[in-house]
Structure formats: C-alpha cells, structure tokens
Automatic annotation (TrEMBL):
Record field: transmembrane: none
Source organism per UniProt: Ictalurus punctatus (Channel catfish)
Name of this protein: Cilia- and flagella-associated protein 57-like isoform X3
Residue segments, region Disordered: 232-252
PANTHER family xrefs: CILIA- AND FLAGELLA-ASSOCIATED PROTEIN 57
Pfam family of the protein (one): WD40
WD repeats: 350-391, 472-513, 596-629
SUPFAM superfamilies named in the record: Quinoprotein alcohol dehydrogenase-like
Name of encoding gene: LOC108256691
Keyword Coiled coil on entry: yes
Amino acid sequence: MASGGSSPQVQPCHIFGVCKGVRNNLLFQDEETMIFPSGNHCVRYHVLQRRTKFIQGVKGNMKALALSPDRRYLAVSESDKWGTITIFDLEDGKCCKKQVLKGSDYSVQEFVCMAFSADSKYLLGQAGGPTWTLYFWQWQEKQLIDSVKTTRNGLISQVSFNPQDEKQICVSGTRTFKIFELKKASLRQANSYNKENEDVLCHTWLSGDCIVAGTEAGKLLKLKSGQLHQLGRPYERQTEKKDSTSSPDQPASVTAITQYSKGFACSAGLGLVCLYEISNENDNYRKTAEISIPVDPYSSQPLQAIATMCFSPAEKTLVISTDRGKLYRISLTSTEISESKKAQFEFLSHSLHSESITGMSICTSKPLVATCSKDFTVHIWDYKTNSLEQFKEFDEEPLCVSMHPNGLSILVGFSSEIRLMHLHYDKIRTVQKFPTKNCTECVFNHDGNMFAAVNKKVIHVYNIRTGKKLDLNAHLKKVQSVKWSEDDLHLVSCGMDGIVCMWDVLTGSCTSSKETDCGYADVIFTPNTGSVHAVDRCSLKEIHDGSILRQMASDGVDYTAISMTRSGQTIFIGTAVGTVRDIEYPFGKEKTWTEHQAHSGPITKMVVTPGDQYLLTASEDGSLLIWTITDPEGKTLKWIKGMEHADEVLCTKEELEEKDQTICELTSHTEWLKLEMQYKLNLKDMDWTTKMNSIFQGYLQQIEALKDQIQVLNTEREDQKDSHQKALTELKEEHAKQLEDQKHSCIEGLLDKDEMYYKLQQKMQMMEKNHEMQLRNAEDSHLCAMENMKQAYEAKLQELRAELEQEVKNSEKKQVRIKEVAESEVMELCRNYEHDLQLEKDGRVKAELELKLMEKNISRYLKMKRLIEDQEDTIRQLKENVQKLKDQLDDATERIEALNKKKEEKNKTIDEQLCFIEELQHTVQNEDMSLEDKQEELVQKIFLHKKGEEKKSYKERSKINRLEKEIQEKKEMLDEAAAELALNNRKNEDIIYDLKEKLKSNNTELFTERQRVRNINMVVQKMKDDIRSCARFIQEPMRLKQNFIELHTRHIHTQDGTIGVDAEVTEEETRYLKDFHTILAQEKTMHARDMKLEKDRYSKLLKERGFLINQLYDQKLKHEQLLNSLKRKNVQCDDTAASSVIPLGESGLQSSANLDTRRGQVFASDRVRFPSINTT
C-alpha cells in the first residue's frame, strides 16, 4: 500500500554508478552534459559542475537508450511484464513524457535496441527473442508503419537509419548483416550478406551509401554501394606493442564503433580505441591514433571491454563506457592525438564501482561515506560535494568497511584478516591488523575506541587502546547485521537464524527475542525508546525486551535493509526490487508507506547521515544513491541544524620531512635553473648582437640599393606622367577643335535655315502683294463695268428691263466665278506655303537627328579609341612587367649571393670591432689603474712637499707639474673614449632595432619555406609508408603490381611550371596600376567637366535661337492681322456694290452670306494651318 503522509519525504539528489547491461548507455546532450542510466534512473550529469538531474518517469528495468539526431528526444526501453518505449522531451525543463509505445499491444516483452531517423520523425524498435521483430513507428502519432522479422537464430545487437534516407535501415547481429527498405508502407529486405561464422557486433553509417561494421573476430567491414569490402583488423597495425598484461589468446573484438566528421572511431580489443580518418578520394581510411585505457598492474582485471563510444557535438571530446561500468574521456585536441602518439583515457569524473556494493559506513564528524565492493575496491566519497575523495584497489575482496568517527581511519574486513587503515591526504595506509577471518560485518562505536566484527555466527568486540577482545556467541547461524547503541554500552545483532540479540558489552550478557521462521536481514536501534526495529524477508518488526510489539507485512516484497532518522519520525526500508519505502513512526492503525524507485538491483545497505539531511542507499547494481530528506512541501526539515565538519587530514612526520626535502631540492633546482637560464640568455644576447650587426650591415646595403631603385622608378614615373600629360593635352585640343567645328557647322546650318525662312517670308509677302494688286484691279474693272452698265441701264432702262435680269444673273455668275478663282488661287498659295513649312520642319528634325547621331558616333569613337589605347598600354605594361620580373629574379639571385658574401664580411668586421672594443676596455682599465697609481704618487709627493718645501728643488716641481698634465690628458682621453663608446652604443642599438625588424620578415619567409619543405617531407614520408605497406604483397605479384600502379597514380603527377614572382615586385606593380587608374579617373572627371561646359554653351545658343524665332513669329502675327483687316475692307466694298446694283432679296442675302462664310472658312483655315514653331 503506497500513500503519502505528513512524515519527511526523500528526493534523489545525486548518484554514483552506471548500469552496465543497458545498450547504448552513454550519450551527449550537449558539450558538457552526459546522459546515462544509473540505478533505476536515467540521469543528466553536468561534468564541470558535478550536478545531476534525474529524468522522472522510468519505472521498469532499462534495456536500451536512443537519442534523436537533433538531441531533443530521448527514447528509453524498459522491461517489466511487457516492454515499453518512453520518449522524453529534453528541451522541456521537467523532461516530460512525449509518447509511450507499449509492447503489450504487440506482445513484446522487451526492446533490445532502438534508433531515431535523421529528421527525428520515425523510430525503430527491435524486439527481443524469440520473435526478433523490428517495428517501424511514426512515433509522434503513435502509428506503426510496418514490422518485419530480422533473424531466426541469434541476437540483434544494433539497428540504425540511413542518415540521408529514412526509408533505408541497417540491422546487425549474430550472423546477421542486412539492409531493409520501406517501399509502399512495407519493410522489405534489400540486401543480406551471409556471415555464417562471424557475428557483427556494431556498425555505423559514414554516408548515405557507406557503412562500416565491426565483428567479433576483430575485423572491420565496409559496405560501399552494395559491395562488401574488408578493412582488416585494427590491432594488426598498432604502432606500439601491447601491454604485457594482455592475453594473446583473447580475441580483439570490435565491440563499439561510431562516426565523426573526419572518419570513424572503433574499439580494437580490450582497453584500446583506434581513430580512422579518410585518406584520399577513393574513400580509403587510415589509422591516425590509438587511445588506451590506463592499466593498473595490481588490479585483478587490468583490461576492460569497451561497450559504448560517443563524440561531443563539437567533436572535441570522445567518451567511452566499459563493461565494468567505468566512464572515460579524452580531449581530441590533445598533443598526443595531434602528433599521432599513443594517448590514454582519463576518468570522466572519478572511478565508480563496477560490482555489487557489500559494505557502507558514514563518518559523524565529516561528510564522508566509505563503500566496499566485490570489484576489490574501497571508495571514500564526499556526499556534500558529490565527489570521490580517495579509492584503493586491493588484491583480495573487501567484505565489509567501517569508518572511524573522526574520519581519519577506516576498518576493512577481508577473508584473512581485519585491517585498520589511516586515510592520508593522498593514500590509504595499513597501520594495524586483527586476526579475524571472514569478517562480513564490522562497525565502530560512537567514540571510536572499540569496534565489533562478525565472523559467521560469532561477534568479536575489540578495544583498540587496550587490545582486549570480547567474543559474543549466541547465534545459531550467520550474523547479518550489528549496530551500537547511542551510549555504546549495548549491541544489537540479527542473523539468518531468525533471532535478534541485545548484548551488554561490559558483561557479555545477551537478551534474545523468540526465534522466527524467516532470517533477519538488518536491525537498528530506535532513538529515545530503547526498542529495536528489524526486517526479514516479509515484514518489519518492532522488538522490545525480547518480545515483538508490532509487525507490519511487506505485501510480497522482500526487505533487505533498514534505517531511521535521528529524530525517530521516519523509517526507511530497502527492498529486493531496488525500491525505498518510507514509513511514518510511530505506526498508525493502517499500514501506510511511500515507495520510491531507486536501484535496478536489491538494496544492500542504507544509512541516514547525521543531522537527518541525507539518506544513502547502496545496491547490488554497484550504484550509490544520495537522497535529500525534506518535509512534504519539499523544504528542509526544521530540526536540521547546520553542522560544521572538520577539515584536518592525516599526515606522518616522515611525509612532512619528505615534503620539506623535496621543497629544498626544488628551490635549489629552481635557483640552478635560473642561473642556467641567465647564462643561456647572456649567450643568446651575445649571439644575437653579433648576428644583428652582421644582418644590419647587409640590410644597409640593401636599403641603399632599394633607394637607388626608388629613384629610378620615380624618374620613370615622372616621365610617364609627362607623356601622359602631353597625350591628355593633345586629346583636349583635338576635342576642343572638334567641338568648335561642330559649333560652326551648327551655327552655319541655323543661319542657312534662317535665310531660307526669311526668303520664304519675302516670297509670301510678294505673293500677298500680287494677290492684293489683282484684287484691286479686279475691283476697279468691276466698278468700271458697273458704272457702264449703270449708264446703259439708265439709257435703256425702259427698253431692256427683261434683259436686265439676264445680265444681272450673268454678272452674278461672273462674280461667283471670280470669287472661286480667287479662292482657288489663295488656297494654292496656302498649300504651297504649308508644304514649304513642312519641308523646313522635316529638314530641321533631320538635322537634329543627324546631330545626335554624330554626337553618339563621336562618343563611341572616343570610347573605342580610349579602350584601344588602354589595352595597348596594359599589353605594353604587362610585357614590361614580365621583363622586369625576370630581370628582378636574376637580380634577386645575384643579390642573395652578394648578401651572403657581405654577411660573411660583416661578421668578420663585427668580430674585429668586438676585439677592438675589448682592447679599448682593457686600455681604459689600464689607464684607470695607472691614473690611480699616479694619484697615489702625487698625494705622497704633495705630503713630502708639505713636509719639506724648502728642501725641494726646481726639478721636483717641474716633475710634479708634468705629472699633473699627464693626468689631465689621460682624463680627457678617457672622457673622449667614453663619449665615443656611448655614441657607438646608441648607433648599435638603432642598428639592432632595424635588424630585428628585418629579421622578423626574414623569419616569416624562412617559416613559409620551412613549411613548404615540411609538406614535401610529409608527402615523401607518406610515399615511403605506402611503399613499405606494399612490401607485404611481395609474394603476390598481381596485388604488388596493382598497389604500385595506385602509388604511381597517387604520388607521381605532372606539375605545371610556374614562374615565382617576388611579392615586393608584384606589390610595386599593383601600386603603379592603382596610380595609373587614379590619374585616368581624374582625367575622366576633367573631361566630363569640359563636356558639361560645352553643353551649357550649346544650351545658351539654343535659347538665343528660340528668342529670334519668337520675334519672327510675332512679326508674322502682325502681318496676318494686317491681311485680315485688308480682306475685311474688300468684303465691305463688295457688299456696298451689290446693294447699290441689286435690290435686296432672299437670293442676294444667301449669296452674300455664302461668300462671307467661304471667305471666313478660307482665312480661318489659313490661320489654323499656319505651322507652330517649336521654340525649344
């Protein structure tokens, strides 16, 4: 019955250990976070921060893991009654379940391996025996696409998707290596490669059509484009011999393989990993590095098989897991791998237990816990920092362990004896042995002076200070557990005989409970009550004074361990299925508990730390789980007090003396190294000064030669500038002449057009005048005729009245005819005028088009001319540059030879100068000595002089004066020499600085040359290696010939001869080209500016022309107005004449109206049809 109460609760905090039986049990989520199964949990472990996060939701025993290529989804295969696959979303903060695929829907008990497709949409699940069916899911929709049976006999070890085609699947296992394809929603076998005698243990996809697989016989197989090839065995070409501890009879199976961007990595037997990289375009792979797991020569199992390998996302780290539950890592950027040396793995975080944990004990003064295991090791852990403090591997199995309360010693029981061992800061050392064999349980009392040890059914109590031993013998069968009371006066023990004994340590008396059918597994004291709690296979019992007070059944689960908080409120029980039950104490009426998933195997030991902060549980699966104890709200318990732990470590006098001695040796060694380094630096300074002086002289001559070259180049540039300037001036003059010619031609054409227009206007005026004269003459003649007719009419009015009407009609017809003739003449004149104007307009348009075409043709001609000239210049310059480069190459070789000779001469001159400087220094020192001697002589003589001035003669005074002069001269000589020396030093410093700069450039050139030589040497070395590898086929002529042909095609190929060009020459050439382009750009801008000025002038001329045309148009309008006024006057005269001759009637009115309308139409049409002149 599982329910929650108000008692303290536990939550998993950290775990030490890895599940060995899980397929693909090591994964990278990111560059610093690992995913692996531990206990009955799947955890995310941050390597740098040592922080563990548990993925909640795993219930059954884990069988396999799979991570999607985008590192978002984690698939976990579990097996209980039926197999299930649970997919977790890792990007979610709580790692919630995304989907659950139940094996009960397909009658599958377990899924042994899984794989995601490249787009993470599809999932493969390989079921175990006896069916061995492969299931293909679209897992997000929980849709089974198809299933297929992969094998009949044997095991399937791995399935995978093609990274470029999710419809292609590879399956490998015992005598199985198959390719399946999904066609029309059904899985069909595409290829099968018979491996009757070989088991394919692992494989990986290198590309969409290439797979590399490893076999149990240690072979590497490559499947490329449907063809199967053998790559040989990885261990055959090892560069170094294997360790002497490795057994030659043991097969070097390829148990794990994985790919990365450069190639692939595979295991090569026990404790060895080989890295392969692609070598050429034929997809051949060569071994570049070997990485081994460090071997402990004292270990009972020195070599480990590699189970899983994986690269970090950035491919900076390779991590592996072994069959013993150890995790190792190596940085792929290390020097050993880059230099193709033999490298070694290191622990991912620390060493872990690989077998069942049989003993566990905590320290009351420090946050330490000691564990022992069947892997022959004892580990000391820090449960606060989640780290391993110390561990030691023994030559026999430790059966139990107990930690001293001060944390400086441990007690370890073996089958032969019990050892008391001190925990030094860097090692564990045995200090005392106790002759108790087959000690399965040992425990210190609370002050550490005594301990109890179990030998089968006897309990031995040792006093460490006095050496006394007390034997307690009351059990009939093996004792399972022993615990001390708080006052260290009593012991409680339980055994397989179903008896719980309470012992008085002082007297050795025993109070036992009644014998039961079931053997007890563990027992504890209850704080503050004096009763004990014991667990057997089927129940929890509370015992007081030998009688059972209360019993609580386990509901079919076997109990294996028990512990209780110091406050006495909660009892924790470990079960045989790996779960932890917490029960509130005192017990209620109903049996209630809360059950937590903990380990994948039975819990062997469990203990609560001082202060009730943590619960520690150990299991047969080799894992150590740390739980935090909290209240129901998830907060720390109120009664927990902050405990201060001691930090002292154990250290002996001999170790301190050794440390002092090593410190003294190191200090003396450092001083000696300093002196040696100083001496080497001084030698290097002297060498460099000599070299710098020699190089300085050589570079001075080079500078002079370069200055001469620069002067020559400057003169050439000036000549080029002058020639270019002359060419530009000529081009400008030609262009100006062409523009002037075009301008004159345009002006002449405009003047001709204006003259033509003026002539046409004059002709029109003459025609208008003639027309007016004709009209006047016609009017005069008409008037005369009318007068004659009037006279005749008056004379013959009475006689010819009938004829008058006929004459009137005839006169009207004549008038009509005259008008029609006049109108036709006027219309012809207008048409001719319009035709002339249209011709003039068309001519003007043609002239403008011709001008535009001429301008375009001129611009094209200029562009073509410039392009041709530029091309000729570039061709000429390229020829000159090629010739110059050849000459400079010859000069460079000659200069190098000359510089080498000058370098030797300068070395000689520098040596001579150094000898001269040393001689000068010797002379200066001698002069100093002589000056001091003379000063002493002078002082003595002055003293003698003061004593007897009267006795001194003239010669002595002269001698003193002479000595003083000599001293003064020597001082002046010394000052001059010092000044000259200082000047020489300054010059040398400047020279050294310049030479250092030049030396840097020379060093870069030397580096490039050395790199080239190194590359050539590498190619030669590769060729030698390939030739050596061909020696293996010396007994097979055909393969030998084929390999030599491949070598010939790989290494011997023609190379195009190219002329090396000095970098400085090319830079000068590019600089000249840049200068030339800048000058051209400047000339182009000048030319564009001149063109703009010419366009402005041309626009001014056009404006003036428009102004003249407007004036002409105004004159023409005035002329038209005059004509219209004259025509109106003529029409009025005709009307008066008609009215005077003919009586007013309808016919006369109609004829005059028609005449007026026709004239109006004629003149209106003349006005409308007059051409409009475009002033623009």
